[in-house]
């Protein structure tokens, strides 16, 4: 059984930074395209960023471009989301996602129902 466990969320002031981590167990990590989604109160879960299994291709939502960086360490079965220049509108629960045999760009266009595996989420709160 594949499990995804996020960590690194918290409270930060606007303009600050956070680094989220997602540790994956129970599967072949290198097969998965990995991504981050977020869900703000009263809103649908939305795509943030994705990275291909080979780590050489990434894809970002417009809201994340230039501020967030997704990366992965296949030796540690972990994916990261470095978030800089945070804004209050970035406040949300951030979810790690995994799906095999797809591309980073395709993950950006997927419905949440097409994601194979989800983490439990980690809260990010940005104060103004």
Sum this structure up briefly:
The protein has 128 residues and is mostly beta strands. The chain has one helix at 104-109, and strands at residues 3-7, 10-13, 18-25, 32-39, 46-51, 58-60, 68-73, 78-83, 92-100, 117-118, 122-127.
Q: What are the key terms here?
A:
5% helix; 128 residues; seven-stranded mixed beta sheet; four-stranded antiparallel beta sheet; mainly beta; 49% strand
Q: Let me know the average pLDDT.
A: 96
The beta-strand count equals 11
Element-level helix/strand string: EEEEEEEEEHEE
What percent of residues are in strands?
A: over 45%
User: What composes the largest sheet?
Assistant: 7 strands, mixed
Q: Quickly count the helices.
A: 1
User: What is the percent of helical residues?
Assistant: under 10%
- The backbone outline, from C-alpha atoms, is globular
Structural class: mainly beta
Low-confidence stretches: none
Calculate Rg over CA atoms: 13 Å
How far apart the termini lie comes to 40 Å
Can you give a write-up of this model?
- The structure is a single chain.
- The chain is mainly β.
- It has one helix at 104-109; strands at 3-7, 10-13, 18-25, 32-39, 46-51, 58-60, 68-73, 78-83, 92-100, 117-118, 122-127.
- The termini are far apart.
